[in-house]
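Worked example 2:
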Amino acid sequence: MSPSTSTAATDRSDDPLFGLVTGLYVALLAVPPVVLAVERLLTGDAGALYGTVLVTLSVVTGVGWSATGRWGGPVRIGGNLLRWLPAMFGGAFAAGWIVTLHNSGTTGVIGFAFGLFAMGAGFALAVMLRTRYTDAVVGATEIEREFSAGWPRHARRRAQRLSLVGAALAGVAFVAGLLTDVEWLRIAGQILFPAVIGTVSWSEERTYTVSTAGLEQRNPVARRLFRWDAFDGYTCTDDALVLHRQWRIDTRFALADLDDPDAVKAAIETHIGSR
């Protein structure tokens, strides 16, 4: 695609989805301690506890949604690792309930489950914050080149095979944990499975923009920005343009997917040197 002269940041100042996910995240963390308090101080009736779960989820999600639906959070958070804190806290929250399982009983199981759900909501919040940051930074710069590309076919197949092997290992770990009643093995399998499946997404076709801010990667639901100093060079092979990142997965563009490989190479070369 030909370069654009400018781009406008997407207005996300009024984003009800962000408020909904934020409210749900807080609600998932609030449910276990509220249920524990009701069980210890009021009643242990199953129906009452179930009602407590529903009411807490509804009320706290609604309050969180109302309070944050028009607030996107400081944009700069999306550009650093602080965006992952909600997900990490959700994981630690789940682990904490497992540790106290012998004292908390059924509520501990609820706490563990809701902690895992909160971790998932935290990951969603991190992606949303990263997208907001990308919108703000790229929206203030001039787009030099825009194109769509995925990995070369052979590299994509290799990534798929490795992911299948990883998924199989995750399944074995999960089943082994169930059969041997080893909690950490079961949890490792649950965490590893989505991680290795997600690796395949790196090889799929994405839309990219080149600007002074960095290399922006877009997919249908999120955007992210790679600063140019994150790359330590590039190489051009017979079938791909490869941008190298130390200790990270390289970014690959199949030449067959590019309308004008030389123009893309020239745009990238203005920001990072070849190896």
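The CA atoms of residues 128 and 222 lie 7 Å apart. The two ends are 26 Å apart (CA to CA).
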